[in-house]
Amino acid sequence: MEKLINQFELGLFFWQIVIFVGLILLLKKFAWKPILDAVNEREQGIKDALLSAEAARKEMQDLTADNERIIQEARMERDALLKEAREMKEKMIADSKQEAQVQGEKMIAQAKAAIETEKNAAMAELKSQVSTLSLSIAEKLLKDELSNKEAQTKLVEKMLGDVKLN
Asked: How far apart are CA 20 and CA 8, in angstroms?
């Protein structure tokens, strides 16, 4: 260090200071401004990117909230539709049961009416056949009874006796 102090020259020092100051002025004029502009531009770009990222994050939160709301509404609507469908199904089943019961009762009533009609027709047919058969038997008996004079007299007396009793 002593060697440096001994070799110190004021003129050389002056010119080094002038060159250093000139270099600083040149750097300030041509280098510092573009470097600072680039740094400021980079800083502004980073700020814009952060703001953009924040806006995107907020938009994503909004979209997520909207999606959740839409999903919730869709679930509620689905539940309402399912409930309505169940109610319609139960109503249709109840209506079908009621209609089937009414139809069954009608069929039973028609069957009873048909049975009653058939029964009446069978009874009328039976009465007709019985009366025809009775007349035929009576005719044959009367022919036998009336062919004999003595039997005719007994029959007339018997009939007159029956009439008095009734």
From this structure: 17
User: Is residue 67 helix, strand or coil?
Assistant: helix
As a whole number of Å, the CA-based R_g of the chain is 65
CB within 8 Å of 151: residues ≥ 6 apart: 144, 145
Q: pTM for the complete prediction? A: 0.41
Q: How far apart are CA 122 and CA 124, in angstroms?
A: 5
Q: For 75-115, what is each residue's pLDDT tens digit?
A: 999 999 999 999 999 999 999 999 999 999 999 999 999 99
Rounded Cα distance between 146 and 153, Å, is: 9
3-class SS of residue 138: helix
CB atoms within 10 A of CB 161: 9
